[in-house]
Amino acid sequence: MKILINNNDLNEALENVSNLGFVPTMGSLHKGHISLIKQSKKKCNKTIVSIFVNPKQFNNKNDFEKYPRSKKRDLSILKRLKVNYVYLPSVKEIYKVKKFSKVIISKNDKILCAKYRKGHFEGVIDVMERLIENIKPQKIFMGEKDFQQIYLLKKYLRKHSSKIIECKTIRERNKLALSSRNSLLQKREINLAAKLITNIMKLKKKLNMQSNIKKVLNKTANEIDKLQNVKIEYLELRNVKNLKISNKLKNSKIFLSFYINNIRLIDNF
User: Fold this and answer.
1) Where in the chain are the domains?
2) C-alpha distances out from residue 31 to 37, 125, 149, 171, Å
């Protein structure tokens, strides 16, 4: 496993690599990341994993500072998985080129997380373009839990030849989607989050063509918002092809964002 920290390292190590798989992460690795890495190893000749907590995608400085970091543990996991390359750039290294075009997200795309996290996806798209330019992977492996992120990256980075491979969300036995932020929750908070997810999954199964889905989801959101230490941000059914509000279950997902004691979780199913 080679650890790379700058563009010179990347150029030297990846010069003759074909069919390179890339798994971008912010570290604090869990089984979801491991699943992405295994998919890359299965479908590509070589795999590179980046660990970079990007300050420009956090609209809250406190959130950035609290984001879980575990570099030593992460490197141990990656070594065990026999990853070929690990990219550990500094903020200065990533942003030393200042001539990237400014990312402007359209008004129609300022929905779901983009509505509530000002500048977040502009930061994500910018840093992903920089990573892609530096690494030049053939395939990028990302989890469906971040569905809106994948949707926007595909839309705004069309000029790049790298193909994004969507991989299924990995969940705990209690149905809670794996997330680095879960480590910030107490056990009772994890149980509460899992219960909310499970109940909404059950609710979706009960919906049918005759249901006023928007009304049902609004009622559910209001009920959740009344729970102690829980604040719901959105609970919406949207078409997976264009992310427009939908009242039909076909080709649609329920998108959810909520806070438990100031820890923000997202999901879709």
Assistant:
1) 2-167, 180-268
2) 10, 24, 20, 9
What confidence tens digit (pLDDT) does each residue in 155-210 have?
999 889 999 999 999 999 999 999 999 999 999 999 999 999 999 999 999 887 66
The two tokens of residue 119 are: 């500048």
Terminal CA-CA length for the chain:
35
The CATH code for residues 2-167 is 3.40.50.620
Q: Which of 140, 176, 169 is nearest to 258 (CA)?
A: 176
Q: What are phi and psi of 85, to 5 degrees?
A: -140, 145
Fold of 180-268: Pantoate--beta-alanine Ligase; Chain: A,domain 2 (3.30.1300)
Residues tagged active-site: 33
In the predicted structure, residue 101 carries a pLDDT above the cut 80: no
pLDDT one-digit tens code per residue, 110-131 = 999 999 999 999 999 999 999 9
76 backbone dihedrals φ, ψ, rounded to 5°:
-65, -40
Give the residues across from 263 on adjacent strands: 260
Dihedral sign, Cα of residue 256, residue 260, residue 262, residue 263: negative
Q: Report if pTM > 0.85.
A: yes
Q: What 8-state DSSP symbol labels residue 226?
A: T
Distance between CA atoms of residues 65 and 54, nearest Å: 11
- CA 220 – CA 165 distance, rounded (Å): 33
| pLDDT tens by residue, 61-91 | 888 998 999 999 999 999 999 999 999 999 9
